[in-house]
Write a structure and sequence with these properties.
GO terms for molecular function: ferredoxin-nitrite reductase activity. InterPro entries: Cbl_synth_CobG-like, NIR_SIR_4Fe-4S, NiRdtase/SiRdtase_haem-b_fer, Nit/Sulf_reduc_fer-like_dom_sf, NO2/SO3_Rdtase_4Fe4S_dom, NO2/SO3_Rdtase_4Fe4S_sf, NO2/SO3_Rdtase_FeS/sirohaem_BS. It is an enzyme of class 1 (oxidoreductase). This protein starts with 12 loop residues before the first helix and ends with a strand. The protein is α+β, with helices and mostly antiparallel strands. It folds into two domains: 281 residues, Sulfite Reductase Hemoprotein, domain 1 (2-Layer Sandwich); 120 residues, Sulfite Reductase Hemoprotein, domain 1, CATH 3.30.413. The radius of gyration is 22 Å and the shape is globular. It is built from 15 helices and 24 strands. The strands form six sheets. The protein has a five-stranded antiparallel beta sheet with strand order 1-2-5-4-15. Strands 3-16-17-14-13 form a five-stranded antiparallel beta sheet. Helix content is 28%, strand content 22%. Helix 8 packs across helix 9. The longest helix is centred in the middle third of the chain and has 15 residues. The structure holds siroheme and iron/sulfur cluster (SF4).
Length: 513
């Protein structure tokens, strides 16, 4: 099924081990791994193939795995959240959950011996972590306010679920799509503000009218990597909602069968588009589809500035509100997960939503319960009115758990923002994104101020530092920010940020600070 042009002898190590045994094959070995323990496992199974099940060996915390979920459109039920809470709770201080920049959750502290039981529990409540790492399609993002947004164009929920079901065989694992050349990101925007950062996905859909019918313009090839970052480009294609799943399937098949595999640094979809040219790529897609691919609508409907959804908002359903809670750098503990499940049930419909800014939305709160909800002690921790800098702070995992990291991110980001907020009045929210290395999981290129971890030298010593990015624009006319200064030691960063906030974002020093 999968074709690769490279000869076996020239395959890189990843292509080699995938050719020897598909990543998904470890699904049937999981009981055995649980019995033998992580130390006795074959290293390629442990360090790589387990990622096909969403189970990530962490060299920083050996024996304590990370479990990356799939939460399509970032929506989960209180019942699912409670199961996740119980799992994380087992691991005491090691257990926590992070909301990711793909509207998803990652659990920590997980022991391999518990995985079979965890997977059984997932099955019972309709959760899956399958195909969430390595050369697979990542969590599919959709509008976080799908179905409740007063100004919604297209409800993305069913579409995102249908695309996930196709790619993962409804969560059971689908060997058709488990040997891609590299990772692959899909996003479906349904609102006017592109809440999903469509432009940084390999394949994305933007609402657009064609001759009075609402469908999607398609963009392709967006990605970030240590070597290169590109915004997606138009495919010159427009599809109706019912054509989205097939288009995803066809693009993935082309990428799987023709994508470049020899050099992993050049294996994302854009490199194939570069090699073929966008016209040839489009024509290959067109030929494989069961319907003729229409040319793009003249414009898409992304004409709003991006919303962050924090705060209290009326829904399209009369008499109901959704409430966006700020979760500092996306980090949650077992008690938080239990609390979120509880408030979602008591005040809403039991539904909980995640955003790519690593925050939470509780929807479906009737007007009659809103006031009591807003008085919940949980909202002291996860505020609806955070300070302007905290409000828009995003951070990747960093060195606490990630072995690629060049710096510590989450704790440092929070501490620095709190110090800056103590010193400055900031009139508007400023989107500051931290990422621990050039892989850019924290998306510094979409931020007003992006900080990318690096190592730097000062007075003969090697220190943790950052490269500074500026000018990322999200929502309407989205474009990527650029690196404006390299190698700033983290210990010297605060005054630089302070000046930037004063000079570029209208901040003023607080009296006495
Ligand atoms: Fe990422 C690898 C964390 C979103 C680009 N990313 C990793 C690994 C798996 C590396 C590792 O094994 O340690 C990190 C796991 C650390 C850990 O223990 O948490 C990791 N990436 C994350 C998350 C958790 C960051 C966060 O704190 O939110 C995000 C999980 C999303 C999810 O739910 O699936 C995450 N990663 C992203 C994004 C942002 C996005 O998708 O919008 C990007 C840039 C966009 C893109 O991929 O085009 C991103 N991650 C990478 C890359 C560079 C890919 C490349 O083509 O070179 C790597 C390295 C790799 O894949 O080899 C990487
Ligand atoms: Fe790890 Fe680097 Fe991704 Fe941060 S950006 S999670 S440090 S790989």
């Amino acid at each position: 099924m999968t074709t690769t042009t490279a000869k076996p002898s020239t395959l890189n190590k990843f292509e080699k081990f995938k050719a020897e045994k598909d990543g998904l094959a470890v699904k049937s070995e999981i009981e055995q791994f649980a019995r033998m323990g992580w130390e006795a496992m074959d290293e390629t199974d442990r360090d790589h193939r387990l990622k096909w099940l969403g189970v990530f060996f962490r060299p920083v915390t050996p024996g304590k795995f990370m479990l990356r979920m799939r939460i399509p459109n970032g929506i989960l039920t209180s019942q699912q959240m409670r199961v996740l809470a119980e799992i994380v709770q087992r691991y005491g201080e090691d257990g926590n959950a992070d909301i990711t920049t793909r509207q998803n959750l990652q659990l920590r502290g997980i022991r391999i011996e518990d995985i079979p039981d965890i997977f059984n529990r997932f099955e019972q409540v309709g959760l899956t972590s399958v195909q969430s790492g390595m050369d697979n399609v990542r969590n599919i993002t959709g509008s976080p306010v799908a179905g409740i947004d007063r100004d919604e164009l297209i409800d993305t929920r069913e579409l995102v679920q249908a695309v996930q079901d196709t790619i993962t065989n409804s969560g059971q694992g689908n060997p058709e799509f488990t040997n891609l050349p590299r990772k692959f990101n899909i996003a479906i925007a349904g609102g006017r503000d592109n809440s999903v950062h469509a432009e940084i996905n390999d394949l994305a859909f933007l609402p657009a009218y064609k001759e009075g019918t609402l469908g999607f313009n398609v963009i392709v090839g967006g990605f970030f990597s240590g070597k290169r970052c590109e915004a997606a480009i138009p495919l010159n294609a427009w599809v109706e909602a019912h054509q989205v799943v097939e288009l995803c399937r066809v693009v993935l098949e082309i990428y799987r069968d023709c994508g470049l595999r020899a050099n992993r640094q050049k294996a994302r979809l854009m490199w194939l588009i570069d090699e073929w040219g966008i016209e040839k790529f489009r024509s290959e897609v067109d030929q494989k589809l069961s319907y003729p691919l229409q040319t793009a609508a003249p414009k898409d409907e992304i004409d709003w500035e991006k919303r962050d959804h924090i705060g209290v908002y009326p829904q399209k359903q009369e008499g109901y509100h959704y409430v966006g809670l700020h979760v500092p750098v996306g980090r949650l503990f077992a008690t938080d997960l239990f609390d979120l499940a509880r408030v979602a049930e008591v005040y809403g419909s039991g539904e909980i939503r995640l955003t790519v800014e690593q925050n939470i939305i509780i929807p479906q709160i009737p007007n009659s319960r809103l006031e009591t909800f807003l008085a919940e002690p949980l909202l002291q921790k996860f505020s609806t009115q955070p300070e302007p800098l905290s409000r828009a702070l995003v951070s990747c995992t960093g060195s606490q758990f990630c072995n690629f990291a060049l710096i510590e991110t989450k704790n440092r980001a929070l501490a620095m923002i709190r110090e800056l907020e103590a010193e400055l009045c900031v009139p508007q929210s400023v989107r500051i994104h931290w990422t621990g290395c050039p892989n850019s999981c924290g998306q510094p290129q979409v931020a007003d101020i992006g900080l990318m971890g690096t190592k730097t030298r000062k007075e003969g010593k090697t220190l943790e530092g950052v490269d500074l990015y500026m000018g990322g624009k999200v929502g309407k006319d989205a474009h990527l920010g650029q690196c404006v200064q390299k190698g700033i030691p983290c210990e010297d960063l605060k005054p630089i940020l302070r000046n930037l906030l004063i000079e570029r974002f209208g901040a003023t020093p607080k009296v006495g600070a």
